[in-house]
Amino acid sequence: MDCPSCSEGLTAYLDGELEPGDRELIQQHLDACPQYHEEYISSLHASRLVDGLPQIDPDPDLWQGISSAIERSDWSLQHLHSLLFGRGSPGMAAAGLGALLLGLSFFLHADERPNVEAEQLLNSFLQERHRLDRGRTVSFREGPEGLIDPPLYPNPFAEAEGDRKRNPFTSE
Amino acid sequence: MLSAIHKLSYRELSEVMSRSLASVKSDIHRARVEVREKIKGYLAENYGLSKLF
Predict the structure, then answer these.
(1) Least packed by Cβ within 10 Å: which of A55, A65, A78, A104?
(2) pLDDT value of position A16
(3) Domain boundaries, position A115
């Protein structure tokens, strides 16, 4: 089992969503591959951090904004339809068709554009977390040896046995 | 959202979204990686926590 295919399984492993056989494969790979174990720790800490974020009720204006945007979108489509299939001039129809193709191209290449909205949302989310819980924004502190917070899965590459903890997904 | 906030299982997600289990698993993994990278970048830039993850 190579690391890339295992990475996808790692998320399911952390979520406790793997069948016993697949879980065993992940654990074997964790025991054998230091890079994969490092990926496991990274994923575990990220999951803990996200789980620790407070749930914030969205601003009431958010839903109104989404609703308005949908309505505007509907209006634009209806307007375009009347231009293309109504009594408008052929030139207007051609312009509408061009705009439609441009929009379609923009939509198809959406993955290539930076997701500014998502980034802004995440930033505001973390800032709110910091405001609510100042001083404890991050529960995983760094020490001279790296992360202070130890991983739950036993690190087969660690020298100190005492640092090991149980894997929450096994019955051992 | 359905996984992280509403705590739906992968199987429930596949039923709700009419997607295969493999597809759900893949999407959740990609979403987690993306969120992790964004948090990592944010914390490194704003708090100097370069070794957090």
Answers:
(1) A55
(2) 87
(3) 60-119
pLDDT of residue A10: 86
Which of B5, B29, B43 is nearest residue A11 as measured by Cβ atoms? B29
CA-to-CA dists, residue A57 to A61, A75, A124, A127, A152, angstroms:
11, 29, 13, 15, 31
* pTM score, whole prediction: 0.49
- A55–B10 CB contact, under 8 Å: no
A11: its two tokens:
């998320």
What is the predicted pLDDT for the residue at A148?
45
Could you tell me which residues are beta bridge partners of residue A142? A147
Does residue A131 belong to any structural domain of this protein?
no
Inform me whether the C-beta atom of residue A117 falls under 8 Å from chain B C-beta atoms.
Answer: no
